[in-house]
Amino acid sequence: MTLTSGFYSSKDGDRKYSAEQMGELFDGLIHYGIYQSYGQALGVTAISGKWAVRIGTGRAFLNKIWVNNDAPYDLPLEQPDVTHPRWDLVCLRINREPSVRAASFAVYKGVSSSNPQIPNVRNTDLDKWYPLARIRTSPGMQQVTYNQIWNARGSSATPWVTGVVGSLDASTLYAKWDAQYEQWSSEQQKSQSLNFQNWMSEQKSDYESWRNTLKTTLDGNAAAKLAQRLDSVEKQISSFTQGVAIKDVLLDAQNGAEIQDHAGNPINAQRLYMMV
Predict the structure, then answer these.
(1) Residues 48 and 179 in one domain
(2) Torsion angle, CA of 186/192/194/196, rounded to 10 degrees?
(3) pLDDT in tens, 127-175
(4) Is residue 268 a part of any domain in this protein?
């Protein structure tokens, strides 16, 4: 166990401090994570028409390193597999290796499979990957849309900084929301499928009824059957007119005088009597 302390004024260069020691000053004061209330909190969004995503502005303090992204950053993605889907991770990478010593945005590529799994990043003490979002790629995809992007911030791997002395692991909450969405989506698909099946059944029943009626009418001697139908219609019309008597009468005015045309001829009419 080593006791360390600082900072002291240097005398002839006998007190020199590293960047790591500067970062240790904030250990216990600021917990590791992304600042949720600063900028766009490093949110990942789709870019219309491009095989890339856009990472928003934001700040983070991770692995003793502070990171500030003051402008949107467009990150190209790994090309999709030609046969199977795959999960990739959009990450904030903090590499403290002596040859690198930098932070960057990068894609951690997963393994293509008929049932792909979200990859587990391989971190070392000096090189760490912090997932910002999960990307679901599929064969033939030309661009990324919002429904292929799943937020990964607020997880145990990349928590939120909620205040000077606290951070929030929202993994359980996100998992619950994801499960609720999956359940709702499944129920909606089943409901729509059932409604469509019912509609198809009704249409099929109506069609078969129409077809059977037409078949009954036209099967065999079509002309004879059509004649029978016409004869049936005529009989129905005739039944409405039975018991009607028609009588020629002269039209007269209210005063009893005949109504005549311009030549002086009386105008005849027909009066119908319904026999009951």
Answers:
(1) yes
(2) -150
(3) 999 999 999 999 988 888 888 999 999 888 999 886 555 555 556 666 6
(4) yes
Q: Please state, as a whole number, how many other Cβ atoms lie within 10 Å of the Cβ of residue 130.
A: 26
Please report how the helices 222-241 and 171-218 are oriented relative to each other, as an axis angle in degrees rounded to 10.
90
- Check whether residue 239 and residue 155 sit in a common domain: no
C-alpha to C-alpha distances, 22 to 43, 50, 66, 198, nearest whole angstrom: 28, 40, 11, 69
Domain containing 166: what range? 19-183
Closest CA to 131 of 103, 156, 148: 156
Please state whether beta strands 52-55 and 58-62 pair in parallel, antiparallel, or not at all (unpaired): unpaired
Q: Do both 169 and 51 map to the same domain?
A: yes
Torsion on CA atoms 199, 200, 203, 208, rounded to nearest 10 = -140
Q: Is residue 217 part of a domain?
A: no
User: Sheet containing 149-151: which strands, arranged edge to edge?
Assistant: 102-108, 86-95, 127-137, 149-151
Low-confidence ranges of the chain (pLDDT < 70): 1-5, 25-29, 162-177, 179, 214-227, 234, 236-276
Q: Which H helix or E strand runs over 133?
A: strand 127-137
